[in-house]
Specification:
The structure is a homodimer. By secondary structure, the first copy, chain A, is of the alpha+beta class. In chain A, a hairpin with a 5-residue loop joins strand 1 and strand 2. In chain A, helix 1 crosses helix 4 and helix 4 crosses helix 5. Chain A has a single domain, classed as Protein of unknown function DUF269 (Putative cytoplasmic protein, Orthogonal Bundle), CATH 1.10.3100. The first copy, chain A, contains six helices and three strands, in the order ααααβββαα.
Chain lengths: 149, 149
């Protein structure tokens, strides 16, 4: 590990694990978590340059799914309830990211300009993920009977 | 209206209305509801002939969305709660149809072999739709606070 490598923890680590789980050829084995998460980081300028009049490309779509799967996995860990993830995007990059258990939606996020999905820093990526995890856990604890319905 | 036309009511009528709402050129204006709903009816043999190793074609995808939108509209009418519809299908015709309000999923249906979406008769189409409407209304009445969450 090089001395400049940021050691990831919490949400970022779970997110990296999600990505590593989809690496049948072991390409990412020698990569640091930070390198693995780099494509999630976009400056405002980089975002602006991505056109939003075309469908979301499969790699970006994959990143959106990894992000929400990481949220779901953390909510599962804390609540013991299995979570389903559905990411639904239309041709214009609008749609929904949903995480649910039984009949309870613990996360409902509308997506727009999903072609430009990204965060300006690793810290903001972590913050946004953990915010969704916290509110998801709170909902699962508030309505446990709905997760069983 | 020809004497052999079945007059639709309840769910089938709402479903026909969903389809007519997406008819900007008025092509369906002179069509009976029954003719409009005919593509929802497939014999077992017709289903078997539809390959399931290709993505769901847009017209079939549209029918799946109309069907669940009709369910959502009827639940809205009875409960006064706005419902969102998400139909999520992967390349292999597997996925979810979800209807929700606030944080409550009133309908969660897994779809498989969605390429073959259809019913063997109008009666079965109506029955299946109304069954989902009834259980959706029951859930919305059981957990009203979750639709507001």
């Amino acid at each position: 590990m090089s001395p400049t490598t940021v050691t990831t923890s919490g949400f970022l680590q779970v997110l990296a694990t999600q990505i590593r789980a989809q690496d049948p050829y072991g390409v990412y084995r020698t990569w640091s978590d930070q390198r693995l998460l780099q494509p999630f980081i976009l400056t405002k300028d980089e975002k602006r340059k991505i056109p939003v009049d075309t469908p979301v490309d499969p790699v970006t779509r994959g990143r959106i799914t990894y992000f929400h799967s990481a949220i779901a996995r953390q909510i599962e860990q804390k609540t013991g309830q299995l979570m389903q993830v559905v990411v639904n995007l239309n041709e214009e990059g609008f749609g929904w990211a949903l995480i649910f258990s039984g009949k309870l939606l613990v996360v409902t996020r509308t997506l727009r300009d999903a072609q430009r999905f990204g965060f300006t820093s690793l810290e903001l990526l972590q913050e946004d993920g953990e915010k969704a995890v916290r509110s998801g856990i709170a909902l699962a604890e508030q309505f446990p009977e709905v997760t069983q319905a």
